[in-house]
Amino acid sequence: MAETMKLEIFRYHPEKDNEPTFQTYEVPFLEDWVILDAINYIKDEIDGTLSYRWSCQMGVCGSCGMMINGVPKLSCAVFLKDYYPDKIRVEPLTGFPVERDLIFQMDDFMTKLTEIQPYIIRNKDEEKPLDEGEYLQTPAELARFKPYSMCINCMLCYAACPVYALDSTFIGPAAIALGQRYNMDSRDHGRDARQELIASHEGIWECTFVGECSAVCPKDVDPAAAIQRAKVSSTIDWFKDVLIPWGKKK
Amino acid sequence: MAKSNEPIWWSLFSAGGMVAAMILPVLIIITGILVPFGLVDDDPLNFERIYTALSQSYLIKLILFIVITLPLFHWAHRFRFTLVDVGLKSVSTLISILCYGGAIAGTIIAAIIFLRI
Ligand code: SF4
Ligand code: FES
Known about the structure:
Bound molecules: iron/sulfur cluster, FE2/S2 (inorganic) cluster
CATH topology of the largest domain in chain A: Fumarate Reductase Iron-sulfur Protein, Chain B, domain 2
Number of helices of chain B: 5
Number of strands of chain A: 7
Strand content of chain B: under 5%
CATH superfamily of chain B: Fumarate reductase/succinate dehydrogenase, transmembrane subunit
Radius of gyration of chain B: 18 Å
Number of helices of chain A: 9
Oligomer: heterodimer
Strand content of chain A: 5-15%
Largest sheet of chain B: none
Structural class of chain A: alpha+beta
Distance between the termini of chain A: 73 Å
Number of domains of chain A: 2
Distance between the termini of chain B: 47 Å
CATH architecture of chain B: Up-down Bundle
Helix content of chain A: 25-40%
Order of helices and strands of chain A: EEHEEEEEHHHHHHHH
Radius of gyration of chain A: 22 Å
CATH topology of chain B: 3 helical TM bundles of succinate and fumarate reductases
Strand order of the largest sheet of chain A: 2-1-5-3-4
CATH superfamily of the largest domain in chain A: Alpha-helical ferredoxin
CATH class of the largest domain in chain A: Mainly Alpha
Helix content of chain B: over 70%
Order of helices and strands of chain B: HHHHH
Largest sheet of chain A: 5 strands, mixed
Largest interface: A-B, 19 and 13 residues
């Protein structure tokens, strides 16, 4: 028989099972297979009851995040050969309630994402008429927020964040990075609207700059840097408020 | 959502981190390695010499004051979050008071000592 590999996969069906179990599957080992290929093989050929999320298989949809040997990764972006011949342990991303098997509940993140208002907000009276054309940006203005706009909402950064694991009221890396993405956009006027949440304790101040979010991010978004920059600008705001109270913005 | 007062502690923490990272290693090399191992002659850490230098210069006092006090706030902030993260969240207010209170006390003591020299 050709070479094989073992995958030890987290199984849990909360309505039926008292507690999670691990099930081991033997799959063919192919040089060019990613872990998601092996899981798809299990689903198609061995056990159709295994549940997990995936879509694009090319690292852009952000739906296939899993703990691979305890590290949050996109399962479509890690090769079996990097683990061969050892057994690979696959679990749902940590820090979230399990829906079923490798599927976890994303509600908390979805709520936070909407709360941060990740879209361009314009002052009503500063909107120019359509026939005057688009709002132009220089390459430098684009560069200020571009890395933050690469986020695919895969939530690996939440699974890696020890602060979020301890206290899920923390807004968390990706949501703050997305807030920054719009705050730093020259076309946006929404910073004040976002600031209430970002500058709150549950916003940036819960972060202790562990930096794991940036270490695991598959898109080099560097959410840790986004949070630190937000801390600097919020601190400047704070001192402005305290030292020049009459200078308060509307 | 209440606006946080964290910026004051965080800015002291960051400034302290800067001092701890950039100035303390230099001081450790000077006071912990070069002088005790006799790698510099003419006894630069002689008490009389340091004391006279300090008493004559507000600039030296100020620099030493900053080098001593800002890292205290760095410690306070780090230690506070460490304690909260190891599971003491329920007493986090007490922890904050003890940590920052300690740093403030250290700052006051340092100020008094420097003013007396
Ligand atoms: S910041 Fe990176 S790790 Fe976090 S959700 Fe976005 S792409 Fe994923
Ligand atoms: S399947 Fe889309 S990112 Fe992995």
